[in-house]
Amino acid sequence: MATLVDMLNTIHELEDGLIHLTDQEIGVLVGDVQGKIDSIREVLSRMESEENRLAQDIKELQARKRSSANSRKRLKQYVLNTMDCSNLKGLSGKVWDLKIQERKKWITREAANMSDYMDLGPNLVRRTFEFCHTSLVNAYKADPEKYQDYVILGKSEFLKFSPHKD
């Protein structure tokens, strides 16, 4: 198949030579150019179809990725809940050991109001009346008594796998 550069060169050659051509010769050449334009249209159409197919594939893969992530989260939560209900802190497998680990989790109040904004200032409360979580937690760590109404210390559990040791 001819490249676009080849087609453009052909068009330039046609323009230069049209002055000396008969009507019949011009008709043959124009027909040839029209065929190339039709080929360009077909190539562009195939490329557009490929783009549309790839976009659809991406959507389907993103949906599968979300589904897989949700399934993984549900399985982890199921294992955590089952181990909690059975008062198990760990399980041993042939290759891996599983333990429940805890970490600190700083929890800020859901929403702020104008009074919070006035009391704490724009560094800790945004104009949209949302707490700036990181800044508020850091302020709490520096002065827990002052910010105790806004932040509480919680915990979150997670599963930790480690290689099995005999």
Task: Give the arrangement of secondary structure elements.
Layout: H1 4-17, H2 23-85, E1 90-92, E2 96-108, H3 114-120, H4 133-142, H5 144-147, E3 151-163
Antiparallel strand pairs: 1-2, 2-3
Word description of this protein:
- This protein is of the alpha+beta class and 166 residues long.
- Helix 1 packs antiparallel against helix 2.
- The protein has two domains: 63 residues; 75 residues, no CATH class.
- The protein has a three-stranded antiparallel sheet, with helices on both faces.
- The protein is 59% helix and 17% strand.
- A hairpin with a 3-residue loop joins strand 1 and strand 2.
In short:
By secondary structure, the chain is of the alpha+beta class. It has helices at residues 4-17, 23-85, 114-120, 133-142, 144-147, and strands at residues 90-92, 96-108, 151-163.
**Segments where pLDDT lies below 50 for 5+ residues?**
none
Average pLDDT score? 83
Largest sheet: 3 strands, antiparallel
Secondary-structure element series: HHEEHHHE
Number of strands: 3
The CA-CA distance between the termini, in Å, is 67 Å
What percent strand?
15-25%
| Number of individual domains | 2
Helix content: 55-70%
Radius of gyration: 34 Å
| Number of helical segments with 4 or more residues | 5
| Shape call | elongated
Lateral strand order in the biggest sheet: 1-2-3
The assigned structural class equals: alpha+beta
Key descriptive features of the protein:
elongated, 166 residues, single chain, alpha+beta, 2 domains
